[in-house]
Amino acid sequence: MTLPDPHSEDVRQQLIDFISADAVFHGDFTLTSGKKATYYVDLRKVSLDHRVAPLIGQVMIDLISDLPDIAAVGGLTMGADPIASAILHQGAARGLAYDAFVVRKEPKDHGRGKQVEGPDLAGKRVVVLEDTSTTGGSPLKAIEALRKVGAEVVAVAVVVDRATGAREVIEAAGVQYLAAIDLDDLGLAG
């Protein structure tokens, strides 16, 4: 078990501030799910930013730190990729050994035909990541692919939970759901 970062609440607030300022857009949007929304959280605007990626890594490590024996983190490409990379790098800086993996939307039709890229995950405990959650479809697709390669999916961890049903879908599939930031944190609730 890792010791909590003494500045973790400061780091989390810095992350919330960056997301609020740079990744929340107001207007009329159609989400991947087809649902309509008056705001859109585009986490790639910050997850690929050199100032913010380390904060995401730190906050997400704090979120999953109580889960024992996690070998690797990752999820469905592309939203999960920078989150996994941030955890991998911030974990290494803390002396933690989190590897990262990428789940393709479909298996490759050439080469080794893999859908899950990265270390061998057979028999390993993993956490599926997502930047923002809406329906839970992306994590479910990743969970299915990971189980096919023999990984034990311990939890789904998201940076921003949109409170649009993903938690319920993931938990109904028998997987723990963790979220670092919610709509209240971003001033978007109700």
Structure description:
This protein is of the alpha/beta class and 190 residues long. Helix content is 34%, strand content 28%. It contains 6 helices and 8 strands. The strands form 2 sheets. The protein has a 6-stranded mixed β-sheet, sandwiched between helices. Strands 1-2 form a two-stranded antiparallel ribbon. Helix 1 packs across helix 3 and helix 3 crosses helix 4. The chain is globular and about 45 Å long. The model has no long low-confidence stretch (mean pLDDT 91).
The gist of it:
The protein is α/β, with parallel strands linked by helices and 190 residues long.
Q: What's the arrangement of strands in the largest beta sheet?
A: 5-4-3-6-7-8
Could you tell me the mean pLDDT?
A: 91
Helix vs. strand class = alpha/beta
Q: Radius of gyration in whole Å, from Cα? A: 16 Å
Contiguous runs where pLDDT drops below 50 for at least 5 residues: none
Number of distinct helices: 6
The main β sheet shows up as: 6 strands, mixed
Principal-axes shape call: globular
Tell me what portion of residues adopts beta-strand conformation.
25-35%
Portion in helices: 25-40%
Order of helices and strands: HEEHHEHEEEHEHE
Distance between the termini: 37 Å
Q: Strand tally, please? A: 8
EC number: 2.4.2.10
Catalytic activity: orotidine 5'-phosphate + diphosphate = orotate + 5-phospho-alpha-D-ribose 1-diphosphate
Organism: Agromyces salentinus
Domain Phosphoribosyltransferase: 94-169
